[in-house]
Hints:
The structure holds two protein chains of two kinds.
Chain A: H1 6-14, H2 20-33, E1 40-43, H3 45-56, E2 69-73, H4 100-107, E3 111-116, H5 150-157, E4 163-167, H6 174-180, E5 183-186, E6 207-211, H7 214-224, E7 254-258, H8 268-283, E8 287-291, H9 299-314, H10 333-344, H11 347-359, H12 364-389, E9 392-396, H13 414-417, H14 423-428, E10 432-439, E11 445-452, H15 457-471, H16 480-483
Parallel strand pairs in A: 2-3, 2-4, 7-8, 7-9
Antiparallel strand pairs in A: 1-3, 4-6, 5-6, 5-10, 9-11, 10-11
Chain B: H1 7-16, H2 23-41, H3 75-79, E1 85-86, E2 89-90
Antiparallel strand pairs in B: 1-2
Helix pairs in contact in B: 1-2
Amino acid sequence: MLDKSIKEIHEALKKKEIKPIDLVEEAFTRIEKNKELNAYITLNKEAAIKRAKELEEKEVSDNLLFGLPIAVKDNIVTKDLKTTCASHILENFIPIYNATVVEKIEENDMVIIGKTNMDEFAMGSSSRTSYFGAPKNPWNHNKISGGSSGGSATTIAARDVLFALGTDTGGSIRQPASYTGIVGMKPTYGRVSRYGLIAFASSLDQIGPMTRNVYENALLLNVIAGHDKKDLTSANKEKEDFTRLIGKDIKNMKIALPSYFMSDIVTEEIRSEVEKTKKLLEKSGATVDVIDMKYLDNAVTLYQIIAMGEASSNLARFDGIRYGFSIENPKNIDDLYLETRKEGFGKEVKRRIMVGSYLLSGENAKIYYNKALSIRDDMKKEFDRVFKDYDLIIGPTTTTTAYNLTDPMDDPSKSFMDDVLVIPVNMAGLPGLSLPIGFGAGHMPIGLHIIGNSFEEAKIYQLASFLEKELNLNLDARKGEENV
Amino acid sequence: MKEKLTKEEVLHVAHLARIKVDEQEIEKYQVELKQLLNDVDKIKEVEGYDEERMIAPWTENTTPREDISGEMLNPKEVLKNAPRHSGNYIEVPIVISEEA
């Protein structure tokens, strides 16, 4: 049933041909079959079945997402359901409240199926920093799924479920979406409440939908978006329907393609797919101009400073006192902090906290952090300038397709460079989406990155749905390995 | 020869982060932390820093919360996740030494 369209599933529920429990059981059967992919840290089996049965008592509303299973990234807190951030330090952490997005999912009668694997505290680009081992790419089990939302990307690409939540601080929704051939949206900063998202870099973090297609992505954003009094950075915007421009003509749309995104940092096979897409858009009546943009090549540096700085501050709360792992018999308070954090955090996280602490200490805060914020503001203005003349910006999502799980992890800069094309969007707080547009060597998916002006997610979905329909790709990864 | 931090620099940074570093880890951190610090040093080459500028760009569309008390978490629930607690208190090792 889960292979059918969302409307077909909804009709079947309405006509009582199927019940929510059938969908939940089907999802668990698929997850069990795909266990090797390691997409989940915790399954929510008992509670999900109970919830699905409760929904039988309810009348099926017009909400297309009624009764549908959803996977949630494991850095979003779920009441009474273990939330680990893929870290030893939170290995046994049971939250006592729900994140706002989780409340919204429940209000909309969706069923949480489990918590997905990720890079520890979302720090990484391949999900290999997970304390629970990396998820595998459904297209080729020797490849990474990307990160940090690697588990969410994996479970969607494997078609275990149709909906997942990811989080994106420096590309962590879009980059794994690109590597696994799914649709991933990082909404405008402030669009979705961060209440209950375990903070990594507070001025960049954003929760967003990961799905098999564009329409379902917009539907899930409809559910999770909205102002929240519990998050002071959440934007006070009118409710809108993000599906409203889907299917609309893209004629006369003005699109910019920054030359930096097509430079030789990107592999030729990916540039060629983007080039083909550009031609298709032009043939369809849109204009695509190659433009020059300042600051794009500074984005990774800004990101390293801002993200590591904010992480060092946010992760100071893990001290072995209030929650999480704590060493036995500490000699004194310093011993408790130092040993708990030494044992509780993994290598990547420790490295980033150490550098971040240094960047924020004393005069360094001015030299690095304040300067980075100031240049980030310039970068935002540079995007503003482009959006005066253009509706959308496009480029590739990643510089390569997914690489091998066994590739070395000893280069501390590597995980940042993997996200070089997606980080500018977090810097400017803009919405960005990755859409599958083709395949590279070994039939590994290639993604197009579509960037919109602040709060113009609907326009991104308009272009994405147009391309999705025109390209009509077979994105079913279950045939992945046969395709190699 | 790779660029390195000194051993003392690594220990200073680890102290700031309140993370214990073993003798055998120091050498690795000397190289890895130096590489990341070289990365972030690139910011020094970027022009256009204005110290006076407002540096919190995310103020659009946000509204301050009213200053009224709201729902609170239940202390019993909160303590469930504390590794050491007693009654309504979280236990910590002695912070001020007895001699002081």
